[in-house]
Amino acid sequence: MSRRIFVPADSTARSLGADAVAEVLSTLDIDIEIVRTGSRGLYWLEPLLEIETDEGRIGFGPVAADQAAALFATGIPDADHKDCLGLVEELDYLKPQQRLTTARVGITDPLSLGDYAAHGGWQGLEKARQLDSAGIVDIVTHSGLRGGVVRLSPLASSGKPYWMQAAGIARNTSSAMPMRVTQALSWIA
Amino acid sequence: MIERIREIARSLSAEPGALLPILHAVQDEFGYVASSAVPHIAGALNLSRAEVHGVISFYHLIRTSPPGKKTVYICRAESCQAMGSAALEQHAQDTLGIGYHQTTDDGEVSLEPVYCLGNCSCSPSVMIDDQLYSRVDAARLDELLES
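Predict the joint structure of the above. Result:
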């Protein structure tokens, strides 16, 4: 299987030359798969190129387009390469962070449902499917979730909104609301 | 051009909130929204010319005159100012011999201010047409303008 190389494709990484790096990598005669991800937000390291290894993803950065070919001159560089930053997850800045809404950003291809599923996606939906409508309403009520869906008031104090009272939420798949409920479930999962 | 604008307006008039999509489509095709287009767009949407004009003049990114071959947007928001964008815009204006909202006589470059490109971590930011650039100083801007 070809080794996966991750190159961010978010606006800032691109503004720092990530597209050109990906372009150079795609012309190399090496068996690699280039995955365009979001950015982990370590912009001083962008373009941050990550390489899949058995130990985890190792990083190189910033990598300019004209350095990319040299980096791969003797094959896929490993953790012993002089420019290697080590395991990206272990970087001082990243390691103590607890990421929630951005947990997958910089790691997955944001358009890949396979990546999404492999990194904890669909859990809220799975959980919602085990519950009946009343159970879903209950869990959302107790979440204290605020936002457009509850008209900026906590559910617990204002009572259940009309659309929940209708109890059609689990069946009404054409509405945006069940998505928000599953989102809520994934946040409190 | 007018016939084509009428066609665009007709094709999008059934969209919800059709005015902005129409203005975008016209600008994508012609580079700007000519004042002569206003009555035709208004007619297609059953709006007054004043309403259409109001939307066009509200959004700074909608142009009412033809752009140069390249449009250079320099960010003037807080982060970029803190990182030297004032000097950068002075350099751009001196080099190009134009001010903001102007186009060089040879029709090559238009210069526009922009207020935050959302790229604050790598200020100063410049956008040339659709391409964003980070940490742009005078030398880098010259390089970008020459390429």
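The radius of gyration of chain B is 17 Å.
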